[in-house]
Amino acid sequence: MSYLNGMLKPDALEGKNILITGGGTGLGKSMGKYFLELGANLIIASRKLEVLRMTAKELESEVKRGSVLPLACDLREVDQVEAMFESAVEKLGHIDVVVNNAAGNFISPTERLSANAFQTVIDIVLKGTVNMTMTAGKHWIETRQPGTFLNIVTTYAWTGSGYVVPSATAKAGVLAMTRSLAVEWAKYRLRFNAIAPGPFPTEGAWSRLLPGELADEFDPAKRIPLKRVGEHQELANLAAYLVSDFSAYVNGEVITIDGGEWLNGAGQ
Ligand code: HXC
Questions:
Q1: Residue 241: half-sphere exposure toward Cβ, Cα within 13 Å
Q2: What is the DSSP letter of 117?
Q3: Ligand 1 in contact with 63 (CB < 6 A)?
Q4: Is the Cβ atom of 236 under 6 angstroms away from ligand 1?
Q5: What gap in Å lies between CA 15 and CA 6, rounded to an integer?
Q6: Given pLDDT bands bounded at 50, 70 and 90, which one contains residue 158?
Q7: Which SS3 state, helix, strand or coil, does residue 198 take?
Q8: Considering only 22-31, 39-48, 220-229, which range has the smallest mean pLDDT?
Q9: In terms of pLDDT, which residue wins out, 263 or 212?
Q10: CB neighbour burial string for 22-57, b if at least 16 within 10 angstroms, e if fewer
Q11: Which of 83, 142, 152, 166 has the least C-beta neighbours within 10 A?
Q12: Are 102 and 22 in contact (CB under 8 A)?
């Protein structure tokens, strides 16, 4: 669809170094591709270095602009997050934006989840985001550099929703942190916003997350007023705006991009 491209000027992110957690696949990769097209350099971080390397190669050859640095890191381990961030600063000189995008989720009746399953999602989503945010935030405060955070949450962070209780719990925490630090760290020129995406199909997580017995409950045609799922470029457009200087006065906001799904009572 032609309206999808060219929302921002081709130099909208020129000179920005943008770190995306979970940037090797899915929505993280799609946002990264558009950031590159707009002149940014990327650092993509996740546990799987092989996947990151393949994505870096693919994006660099497709976009032919900017650079992509793949760095392995388990976000649950603060030492690994700090080492990854230090190595990114060493290679690129400065980091300007952190996109907290990495997530894990199980769609399951809650009573069937083990304590470890619950903990796993909380650790990746909440603890991982806290680790990344504290690491980048403390660095920016110490070096007196401005910085921008973009946190990917979901609408059930505030509506609640069945079958995704660990994820909803963790994302509610991420949203609370987004708003709280938007207030507290504004004095350091650090800006925080969030995006709450509705359904955007991805190669891996989408099919893995929707087990047959629950698929009907998640049928987009039944849930979404616009009767379709989202296009990755639509999310990338919003993300690019929120990490760019065009949104410099937007702070502590969460913007939903879901075709009207949550207002239609999804999650109730
Ligand atoms: C219930 C499960 C499970 C499942 C594993 N477990 N799969 N429980 N349902 N489908 C249990 C295991 O038995 C184990 O508990 C515990 O969870 C940890 O399992 P591991 O396999 O060791 O987990 P690990 O490999 O560390 O990480 C799991 C993961 C990973 C985080 C979910 O698969 C992952 O990184 N996925 C890709 C990212 C992802 O899912 N992204 C989607 C986010 S979308 P026991 O007790 O046996 O030890 C999103 C928005 C929602 O968040 C969109 C809704 C449509």
A1: 17
A2: H
A3: no
A4: no
A5: 18
A6: very high
A7: coil
A8: 220-229
A9: 263
A10: bbbbbbbbbbbbbbbbbbbbbbbbbbeeebbeebbe
A11: 142
A12: yes
